[in-house]
Amino acid sequence: MVALVQRVTRASVKVDNEIVSEIKNGFLVLLGVYENDGEKECGILAKKTANLRIFSDENGKMNISPANLLEKGEKCEILVVSQFTLCAECKGQNRPSFISAANPEKANELYEKYVSLLKETYGIDTYKGVFGADMKVELLNDGPVTIILDTDKL
Question: For 2-153, which CATH superfamily applies?
């Protein structure tokens, strides 16, 4: 699995010009699921996301995670958007190939599992886009801070 994590001051997802999810002060996570991914990768990625220390501490250093904020009684939200295009292969070609991406049924199952782990295991207010829909994503990246998490490299 691969996640592009962006620290945001706000983010939203629209489908058919209607806002379906929006957050303030948290992470926007674009999530790609590969065919060989399973529940193990979901667990690894959810744990890393919940503990990713990219919020600033009192000294302005990136040293605070969503889990740390919750421990302090502060709010942190995560908006997760399914993004199969993160699984694109472009080596030796200009037109992306998505052959390594999980099929929609499997991808949706693991997307839902990842969201569920963030909510239930880590207690983070987590919101979703609409799987498979034509979504319009808006965000205000804070920093900007953007981190790529790839379970093959964690």
Answer: D-tyrosyl-tRNA(Tyr) deacylase (3.50.80.10)
Output the average pLDDT for the chain.
97
pLDDT at 118: 98
Which burial class, exposed, middle or buried, applies to 95 when counting CB atoms under 10 A from its CB (0-12, 13-18, 19+)?
Answer: exposed
Q: What is the pLDDT of residues 38-69, one digit of tens each?
A: 999 999 999 999 999 999 999 999 999 999 99
Q: How many Å apart are CA 96 and CA 89, to the nearest integer? A: 5
- Known catalytic membership, residue 85: yes
In 3-state terms, what secondary structure has residue 63? strand
Catalytic residue among 85, 121, 146, 151: 85
pTM score, whole prediction: 0.97
Q: Where are the domains of the chain?
A: 2-153
